[in-house]
Structure formats: structure tokens, C-alpha cells
Design brief:
Blueprint: E1 5-10, H1 13-21, E2 30-33, E3 42-45, H2 47-50, H3 60-66, E4 71-73, H4 77-94, E5 98-102, E6 105-109, H5 117-131, E7 136-141, H6 144-157, E8 167-169, H7 175-179, H8 192-200, H9 206-210, H10 214-221, H11 224-232, E9 248-259, H12 262-282, E10 287-295, E11 301-312, H13 315-329, E12 336-344, H14 362-381, H15 389-403
Parallel strand pairs: 2-4, 7-8
Antiparallel strand pairs: 1-6, 1-7, 2-3, 5-6, 9-12, 10-11, 10-12
Helix pairs in contact: 10-11, 12-13
Length: about 400
């Protein structure tokens, strides 16, 4: 059976959601991202902003130079997630076979639906435009690879002054004709460095790649050559994955200014560890490996990890491991840009404690009971009802500064 796969992308999603909240922003150069005064980065930008050369992952300070009238909005991820869920729930009401790639992107397998792929794409696009007031672009093809490429090509060919809201179709039997003239960088999985290597061997288009034998490509690019030979011919048998099992959790922060204070750095590690622990427990998981990521001002990045025989899920356990890793690589006065904490080796949760449990490790039991109490209080009365000591001291200092008008 010839498959019908749709690739859907919500155009400039963060900005589109912001325009829903504030219609006066429509048509203006806006961007969602960090402050230009620090090391802020653009997460998303409107098409009006893109006309000035602004793009995602660009430092906010540079974006302001390119577009002085650029309106910078702080990210509101809860709001974006809420709208994304509404759209994804609608897609799953159309077909149960939906693979969500990101907050604003998904594949749909509509092979079992009798209507033609282009008709389904039009119906879905019209529904999202009308029900959620969001623009979206769709690629339709016999597999995931071609649907993704088709969508990218359609969006690139559209007017860049407004969201594309395009539908691009690759019909069965037209794969080679569609792919042949496209530059190799258009192929999913080929980055700038690989494209540069290909150019040195006279491979400029996907058609050039398809005309090389599998043996030639394997000799040139190693094991990935076999995959390149298949992709260049539009061959992709991958099914849609409707459920992704997380393999790790992490949380990272980039300071507005380089930090060299041990107190500030370890305090940040504790906050990051608490965030990771909270996420770990929300997914009903425990972990055996704790990871530290740290970057110096010269952009040298160091990662370290430690693995335990017994799984853990407590914030203070994660923090103790992260702090140990930190002190193994950091020396006094060393400045830090970003720092992050992560966990992997995920498994089932540690069994719940009750009043009749007996443990050799009384510290674990005490910390577990304390953490459960904190979680219960915060869930009932809000996140600011109870603090650990370091948070309370910091809050007092902040209030004192505010009272003095600093």
C-alpha cells in the first residue's frame, strides 16, 4: 500500500501565539527571545522581522542592530504549550497515528483515510486557520523524508513577508523529479559541513547524489553513505513513532554575565537539581547517572558524569552528585558561562515510603519525607508558600533592595 504522510509545521509559532494575545502586533517585526542587554538569543521571529535578516538562534543584541524597531517579547512557554496541545489534540482526532516532533511540528499517517492527501491537507489547514487562528504549512508525500522536504521547499518558495501557510505535494512516482534539482542541503540530515564535503566531490544536488552508487558514497562518507544513497532516491520506510520514551532529563542556565562565585554557582546547581528532580518524579522515574555540563568564557565545554548502582530521585541526591562533579573541574575564581545538570539511566520509580518502613539509610528517609512535605504544601498552597533556607535568604535580600529602591 502506498502511504500518505503529512508533515505539518506551525509557521513562526511563538510569534503567532503572541499575536493571538495581542492583535496589534500583527504585521510588525517581533521576536520572542532573551534580553539584548545580556546574552539573550532569539527563539522565534515574525516574517516581518525576517525581512531585516533576523533569524532564530541569533543573539538578541545583533537582531536589534539589524532591526532597530524589533519588538522583543519574553518567552511564555506555558502559553505556547497550551496552544500546541490544542492543535496536537485536534490532529489526533483526525488520525491516531501522529508523531509529534516538537512543540510546533508533527507527522501524520493518513493512509487509512479514503480522501486524497491534498484534500486532507486542505481540510486540516483550513481547520487550524479557522479554529486556532494559526498559520500552518503542510507537506504531503509517500513517506516522512519526502513530506518534510516538500514542506520546507514549499515554505521557501512562498512570499517571505507573511507566514507561508502553504501546501506542497509530492505524488507517488514523482519522487526523483522532485528531488533531482534540489541542493543537497535540502535533504533531511545533511548539514553545512556535509554539504561542503559533497561539493568537493562534485555533488551539488540531490540528483547528483542519487547518480552515485552506494559503494561510492560509502567510500566517501563511511557508514552514512548507505543511508544517503537511499534518501537521495526518496526511499524512506520509517514508521511514525507515536510515543517517545524519554532517555534523559536536563536543565541548564546561561548567566547574563560570567559567574566566578562558588556560592552563586553551587546555589544555581541546587536550583537546577531541584528542577531536574521535579521533572524526574513527574514522569514517575528514577535515575542512575547524574551529569554536569559547564562552559568556560572561551566556549570550552566540559561534561562529567557519575553512575550509581542504586537509582535515585531526590533533589539533594542529585545536587550532591552534581556538586561533587563541579568541584572536580572548577577552581576558585574560574568564570562560568552556562551550567547544567542532567540525569539518565532512567528506570521505574523508587517505591514509596510509609510509616512502617525500616531503612538503614535514615538520611534518605528523612529527605524523602521532607521533600514529599514540600511538594504537598506547594501543590496545595502555591510554589511560594515554603522555601528552603537558601531561597528564603535570597528573597529577603531582594526585598531589602526593592525597599531601598535599588
Amino acid at each position: 500500500m502506498i502511504r500518505k504522510i503529512l508533515h505539518l509545521d506551525l509557521d513562526a509559532f511563538y510569534c503567532a501565539v503572541e499575536e493571538l494575545s495581542n492583535p496589534t502586533l500583527r504585521g510588525k517585526p517581533i521576536a520572542v527571545g532573551g534580553s539584548p542587554e545580556g546574552r539573550g538569543v532569539i527563539s522565534s521571529c515574525s516574517y516581518a522581522a525576517r525581512l531585516f535578516g533576523v533569524c532564530s538562534a541569533m543573539p538578541t543584541a545583533r537582531a536589534i542592530k539589524l532591526c532597530p524597531n524589533l519588538i522583543i517579547l519574553p518567552p511564555q512557554h506555558k502559553k505556547y504549550s497550551k496552544v500546541s496541545k490544542q492543535v496536537m489534540d485536534y490532529l489526533r482526532s483526525t488520525t491516531p497515528t501522529v508523531e509529534q516532533i516538537s512543540i510546533d511540528e508533527a507527522f501524520l499517517d493518513v493512509s487509512d483515510i479514503t480522501e486524497q492527501g491534498n484534500i486532507l491537507a486542505q481540510q486540516i489547514q483550513k481547520a487550524i486557520n479557522a479554529s486556532y487562528n494559526l498559520p500552518c504549512s503542510i507537506g504531503v508525500a509517500p513517506n516522512k523524508l519526502l513530506a518534510k522536504i516538500a514542506n520546507n521547499v514549499g515554505k521557501s518558495a512562498a512570499s517571505q513577508t507573511v507566514p507561508p501557510n502553504t501546501i506542497t505535494i509530492v505524488s507517488p512516482g514523482e519522487e526523483a523529479e522532485f528531488l533531482d534539482p534540489l541542493p543537497v542541503i535540502a535533504m533531511w540530515g545533511v548539514g553545512p559541513k556535509t554539504a561542503e564535503r559533497m561539493e568537493k566531490h562534485g555533488i551539488l544536488t540531490i540528483g547528483d547524489l542519487a547518480r552515485r552508487t552506494e559503494i561510492e558514497l560509502t567510500n566517501l562518507f563511511g557508514k552514512v553513505g548507505k543511508e544517503l544513497a537511499k534518501r537521495s532516491k526518496g526511499i524512506d520506510d520509517r514508521p511514525l513513532i507515536t510515543h517517545h520514551e524519554a532517555k534523559s532529563f536536563s536543565h541548564e542556565i546561561t548567566f547574563s554575565k560570567d559567574i566566578n562565585s562558588e556560592k552563586s554557582l553551587t546555589r544555581t546547581l541546587l536550583k537546577l537539581s531541584e528542577n531536574v528532580g521535579k521533572r524526574l518524579r513527574s514522569k514517575n522515574k528514577s535515575a542512575t547517572t547524574i551529569k554536569l555540563k559547564i562552559r568556560w568564557p572561551d566556549f570550552t565545554t566540559i561534561t562529567r558524569q557519575v553512575t550509581y548502582e542504586e537509582p535515585i530521585d531526590l533533589d539533594m541526591q542529585i545536587y550532591s552528585a552534581a556538586r561533587l562533579l563541579f568541584h572536580n573541574v572548577w577552581h576558585e575564581g574560574k568564570r562560568v558561562r552556562p551550567i547544567g545538570v542532567g540525569v539518565s539511566g532512567l528506570g521505574p520509580p523508587i517505591r514509596q515510603l510509609n510509616l512502617w518502613d525500616t531503612f538503614d539509610d535514615n538520611e534518605y528517609k528523612k529527605e524523602k519525607q521532607l521533600q514529599d512535605a514540600l511538594v504537598n504544601l506547594r501543590e496545595r498552597y502555591g510554589t511560594h508558600i515554603v522555601f528552603r533556607g537558601y531561597e528564603y535568604q535570597r528573597m529577603l535580600k531582594r526585598n531589602q533592595r526593592n525597599n531601598r529602591g535599588i
